[in-house]
Amino acid sequence: MRQRGVAGDAAVAARAARPRPNPVEGFAGGARRALSSHLDAPVGPGILPSSWTRRRPARPIPRCRCIPLPHDPVPQAASPVAGAEPRTRPRIDWRNHLVELAAVFAGFTAAFLLNTWREERSERRAEHLYLRRLLLDVTLDADSLADIVAAKGSKTTRLAAFIESLRDGEPRADEALTALAEVMANRRFNPKRITYDSLTNTGSMGVIAGHALKEANVEYYIGFRDLQAKEAIVDEYLKTYGIPFAYQHMDILTMTLHRPDVARDQAFRNLVVRYLTLSNQNL
């Protein structure tokens, strides 16, 4: 106990002999130490321990794997590791590609051939329909033209006989009335052009396959132009001379002549003879 008391007294004496710290120095000591750690220089009245003045190395910042933004540079691919197997590109199976290409080509070809076959079949049907209509029109034209030619042939025969009677003597009044009526009853030929005009106006003449058949149809309808021109001359003559003479010397309602001796007039004779000449030219 005595020894512990002596040691305690010595410790108390040593603490009493130690210089007391300045309160100002203790307050500013923290700031000095902080500055000395950055400047690596001693501050204050004495030199601080080396553990206080030595600058600590900076800790490495841990790297993080971040997703690059659109404006950030794209990171470069990592270099292949030594000893690792190199990546190989997938092998292209050209056989399958060629089979697919052949299948697509065959499909397009089949569709094209089928469409062509349908168009040709539609054109053949249209050709058959047009030819049937043309045949019907030509048949009706032939029948109508035959009737007109026969009627005009009989008319010219009767008018020729009437002109001979004028030369021999004075014809009867009824004969003169019949001759005037036949002159005024002029019949024209109007061919059926509905099917032909439809072919030419719509550009469907190419539907007819036969070239000779096309030429025959075109020549048939063009040939009527000369006939229509001749008939126009006869119509113009009747409008100019025949109709005025009939209005002046004939009662159309009762079909009688104003004068029984009208056949003696030079105008009547010229009218009949001229009409007979024009009718013979058309035939």
Look at the structure and give the mean pLDDT. 75
Q: What global shape is seen? A: rod-shaped
Strand content: under 5%
- Give the N-to-C terminal Cα separation: 177 Å
Q: Largest sheet, described in full? A: 2 strands, antiparallel
Helix content: 55-70%
Give the strand tally.
Answer: 2
What is the H/E order? HHHHHHHHEEH
Description:
With 283 residues, this protein is mainly α. 66% of the residues lie in helices and 1% in strands. The protein has nine helices and two strands. It has a two-stranded antiparallel sheet with strand order 1-2. β1 (250-251) and β2 form a beta hairpin. It starts with a helix and ends with a helix. The relative contact order is 0.07.
Summed up:
Helix content is 66%, strand content 1%.
Per-chain topology:
Layout: H1 2-17, H2 23-39, H3 50-53, H4 94-168, H5 173-184, H6 194-201, H7 211-222, H8 224-249, E1 250-251, E2 256-257, H9 266-282
Antiparallel strand pairs: 1-2
Helix pairs in contact: 4-5, 4-6, 4-9, 8-9
Can you tag this structure with a few keywords?
1% strand, rod-shaped, single chain, 283 residues, mainly alpha, two-stranded antiparallel sheet, 2 strands
